[in-house]
């Protein structure tokens, strides 16, 4: 049996992107792997020809009878995998040559870790050359999961025994947030981790799911929030849940009145207190995340609503780290009247 199963669903990607993705895996410094490719666009004959052009015994090629979507493709690939560890791969990205070698070493040296991601660099048509480093430690990763995905899915490697024993699968109703629910489920049995090294290149382009299906993804976020709150035993009113969905975790919101900002502080304080009393995630780290998001929304309110948040920040019990830009904004707003 191979040590690693690299799994990659393919759907109507460009030939040049697909070739770069395949070759980045075949050229890994670590060679004890199988490369399972599932073509979820079986009617796309050129893609099939691209994949079949690689004469490498480590490739195992499969086709869907009809397009089934990314989460169902992931779940089928999990069933096909035979390695000790499973590594994800996107059909239009690039893994650095040492990626598998370093992730295998990490996960073997940290038996308490069930899944590990890596830092990555964006490239492509938009958001070029930006490096993203998610938190390394389990506590902060867990604390962030309610607010954002704190592990980058295509960079992950996880233990097949863990997901097999506990029947952990991707939520097939989701087009995007299936990974966050997956991390949450793994986190019930093992630690979550990120490596700080950049071992992956993530391609940004206008045809990405995150760019094309924003309304659906927003509804999935709302659904995951509801699930998380239920697991934590936190009951929010309909208005409080709406405030959380529309303003706390939605980065491109525009806050234009002090009442909305006050409601955001109230909701964040409420969920923070509830988690302190009955922790679902580490209390200290969760408090810090809540404070961070309140600070971000205060900056938003200063820019879009010209709202001075000094009094609100003085009364909140959330930990707010000093932020020079926010201080300058509030001072300027105070000075202007």
Layout: helices, strands, pairs:
Blueprint: E1 4-10, H1 15-26, E2 33-39, H2 45-52, E3 59-63, H3 70-80, E4 85-88, E5 94-95, H4 99-109, E6 113-124, E7 131-132, H5 138-144, E8 157-159, H6 160-165, H7 178-186, E9 191-204, H8 209-212, H9 214-232, H10 238-248, H11 258-277, H12 283-304, H13 310-315, H14 324-335
Parallel strand pairs: 1-2, 1-4, 2-3, 6-9
Antiparallel strand pairs: 4-8, 5-9, 6-7, 6-8
Describe this structure in words.
The chain has 337 residues and is α/β, with parallel strands linked by helices. The chain folds into 2 domains: 4-211, Alpha-Beta Complex (Spore Coat Polysaccharide Biosynthesis Protein SpsA, Chain A); 233-335, no CATH class. The protein has helices spanning 15-26, 45-52, 70-80, 99-109, 138-144, 160-165, 178-186, 209-212, 214-232, 238-248, 258-277, 283-304, 310-315, 324-335; strands at 4-10, 33-39, 59-63, 85-88, 94-95, 113-124, 131-132, 157-159, 191-204. The longest helix is centred in the C-terminal third of the chain and has 22 residues, at 283-304. It is elongated and about 70 Å long. It starts with a strand and ends with a helix. The model has no long low-confidence stretch (mean pLDDT 92).
Poorly predicted tracts of residues: none
| Average pLDDT level | 92
What is the class of the largest domain in the CATH system?
Answer: Alpha Beta
The value of Rg in angstroms is 22 Å
Main sheet attributes: strand count, strand direction, barrel closure = 9 strands, mixed
């Amino acid at each position: 049996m191979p040590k690693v199963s690299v799994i990659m669903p393919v759907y109507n990607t460009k030939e040049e992107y697909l070739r770069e993705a395949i070759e980045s895996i075949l050229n890994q410094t670590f060679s004890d792997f199988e490369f399972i490719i599932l073509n979820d666009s079986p009617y796309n004959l050129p893609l099939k020809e691209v994949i079949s052009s690689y004469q490498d015994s480590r490739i195992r090629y499969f086709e869907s009878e009809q397009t089934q979507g990314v989460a169902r493709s992931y779940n089928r690939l999990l069933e096909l995998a035979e390695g000790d560890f499973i590594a994800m791969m996107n059909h239009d990205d690039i893994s650095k040559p040492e990626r598998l070698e370093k992730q295998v070493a990490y996960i073997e040296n940290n038996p308490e870790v069930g899944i590990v991601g890596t830092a990555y660099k964006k490239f492509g048509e938009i958001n070029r050359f930006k490096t993203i480093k998610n938190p390394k430690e389990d506590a902060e990763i867990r604390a962030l999961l309610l607010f954002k995905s704190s592990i980058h899915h295509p960079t992950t490697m996880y233990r097949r025994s863990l997901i097999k024993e506990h029947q952990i699968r991707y939520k097939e109703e989701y087009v995007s947030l299936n990974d966050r629910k997956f991390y949450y489920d793994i986190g019930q049995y093992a630690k979550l981790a990120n490596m700080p090294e950049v071992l992956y290149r993530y391609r940004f382009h206008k045809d990405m799911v995150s760019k094309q299906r924003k309304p659906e993804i927003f509804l999935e976020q709302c659904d995951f929030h509801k699930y998380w709150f239920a697991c934590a035993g936190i009951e929010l009113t309909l208005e409080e849940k709406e405030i959380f969905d529309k303003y706390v975790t939605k980065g491109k919101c525009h806050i234009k009145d002090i009442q909305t900002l006050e409601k955001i502080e109230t909701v964040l304080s409420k969920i923070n207190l509830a988690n302190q009393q009955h922790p679902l995630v580490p209390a200290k780290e969760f408090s810090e995340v809540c404070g961070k998001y309140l600070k971000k929304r205060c900056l938003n309110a200063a820019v879009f609503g010209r709202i001075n948040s000094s009094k609100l920040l003085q009364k909140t019990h959330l930990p707010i780290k000093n932020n020079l830009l926010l201080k300058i904004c509030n001072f300027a707003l105070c000075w202007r009247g």
